[in-house]
Amino acid sequence: MANFATAALVKAQAKLQAAFQSNELRFRDPAVHKLFLQNSSIMFPDYNELKTRDDRTVETNYATRTARSLGSARSHNHTGAQGDSAVMTPSWTTYSDDFVSTIKEADNKIYSYEEMHMSKMQNVIANFAEGLDSAASTYLFSNRTGVNGATVEGTFDATDDTFEIDETTNGNRAIQITKMVMDINKYQGVRFSIVCDSIAYNKFMFNAAQGVSNATNYSFQFQGIDFIHDPALTAAAAGLASAYSKGYWIAVPEGSIGALPWIPKQNKQGLELKEASYGSILNPIDGIQYAVHTYEERADGTSLGGYTQDVKIETEISVDIAYVHAPLSAAGATPMFAFALV
Fold first, then answer.
1. Residue of 252 and 81 predicted with greater confidence
2. Lowest mean pLDDT among 82-86, 288-292, 307-311
3. What is the distance between the alpha carbons of residues 103 and 155, in angstroms, rounded to a whole number?
4. Tell me: the pLDDT tens digits for 213-227?
5. Whose CA is closest to 315, among 87, 47, 93, 98?
6. How many Cβ atoms sit within 10 Å of the Cβ of residue 52?
7. Strands (DSSP E) along the chain, which ranges?
């Protein structure tokens, strides 16, 4: 049961040591989610003012690329093509986590009400860290580009939307080839992050650490790149038609993705009503504001670790997030390029 019943004094249970408790409440740092958050204000500086309610649609216009071959002569009656633009509409998803308390739940416990409440909040923070990182990872993988013009030292598999590099001949130069592919796709001179599955991460970190002590120094290719380990990519890559199992990664140019967090204005401002209260908390893990909504009702709190004449306090923590990437006019094209060793 999720009601601290195991801490009842009648069982004379000893309080867990802090070290054991921190092990129980451990969670992975949401590195992929944080990667999306880094450039949010650059992509959409005013979205918080434009989005005034959960169901309000926000649109942004952007100029599209008009590619054409150059002419070979001057003319007195030349005719030109107009430029064009398109609309990008971010899609917000609400993420929430709930917990319940009663005013009498701590009366026969070794934990105080404040300690129990803090433990519940720690679980909420851990749940959001893992849940949002999973959502960000899924978005990244699902939106990898289906357009890749590179054909040198590898092959683009249009079924799996993945650029394949032969492990035997070029495995130690995979990052150098990744940079070349990004350059061919017109991301030359751009700093980028590489989100790796567990297999690729191990290989890249090993090669990056060898340097001059290795028979061949492959460390040159790792300069100017941030590597992020995403364990979820291992299973995602294995689930593709080619069932990649030798290393999989996605290159993300700086400034090309974003996460747009949002909470209702009542929570931002703080509002206390007879029936409910609206507030917010700053999550120390990802640094964004989360909405807090609570309400109280009379209850028999026995099943919740309280007592018969009790008050139940329901609490919900929530945030709306739109994961986005820089829009491209070519069908199937995105700035996120997937690679695999084969």
1. 252
2. 82-86
3. 63
4. 555 555 556 777 889
5. 98
6. 12
7. 60-63, 85-88, 93-102, 155-157, 162-165, 192-196, 225-229, 248-253, 257-262, 271-272, 276-282, 289-299, 310-325, 337-341
